[in-house]
Each structure stands twice: as structure tokens, then as C-alpha cells.
Amino acid sequence: MIAEIPSLWREEVWHPLSVHLPIVTLLLSSLSAIVNLAVNNKIYHLFLKQMVFVMLTIGVLSGWIAIYTGDLAYSIEVRKICDPKVLQEHQWWSYTTMIVYSVVLFLNVIPNFIVLKFSNIKKIVSLFLLIAALFGLLYTGHLGASLVYQQGAGTYNPSDDCSEFEK
User: Fold this and answer.
1) The Cα angle at residue 105 between residues 13 and 16, in degrees rounded to 5
2) pLDDT on residue 51
């Protein structure tokens, strides 16, 4: 009897399909903010500031989609993996990281005239949060990689002779 290859569009696979865009855009937003500290040129400074905002916006919006698809995968994968504590920790860090990035986006969306007195404080807090969130993003990714590459979360294990791939 030949085994059937499961569909690529099953629910637990939606998460890895949706998670890479927020990873790269949030990573770029944090790194751009850090690089912006060393830039003296006004044009480069403005470019990096705009890049932080655009990457942060795309990352936060797509990040919450990744959280949603991760929640869908959670109920399926938690029963299949050997150590569900890693999955729970991955989930906790992903929520925490997305909340921090969302706060930074909110701080950047607040009109400057409302917080004009606190604009320097807002910049310092935003930078600190972007750096903290970067570490959360990296650790969340580490846990996600551990789930996939050590425990096989969301992956299909073919038969020893790979007969299901023969036509």
C-alpha cells in the first residue's frame, strides 16, 4: 500500500508560510534603527527613519497574521511533538515580541505635536524597545527552528523507501 502525501495547504503549514515576512521586516526595522545611531548624514538619517517605519508597519501587520496562523497550528502540533514546553515558550515569546513591536509602532504613529515635549524620550524608548524586541525575535525564531528541526513540527516524514513520491 502506497502512503499518500499530505496536502501542502493543511492548517499547520500556514504558519511557516506566513512567518518569514514579519521576521525579515521586523529584523530590518530594528537593525535600521541601530544603524541610524551611527549616521551623520541627514539624507541617510531620514531614509533610515522612514525605513524603520515602513518595515515596522509591514512587520507588525504581518506578524499578527503569523501569530494567528501559529495559534491554528498550535492545537494540531502540541499533540505531535515530544516536548510541548518548547512550543508553549515559542508562543509566549512570539506574543511578547509582537506586543513590544506593536508598542513601538504606536509610539511612531502618535502625532509629534501631542508629545512634542517628550519627543527625545519617545525616540530613546522606541530605540530601546526595538533592540529588546530584536532579541525576542531572534529567540522566538530559535525556538521555532528547534520545533521544526529537532521535533519535526509541521513536517511530513516520508517512508524509508520514499514510495509515496513515485508516480
Assistant:
1) 10
2) 96
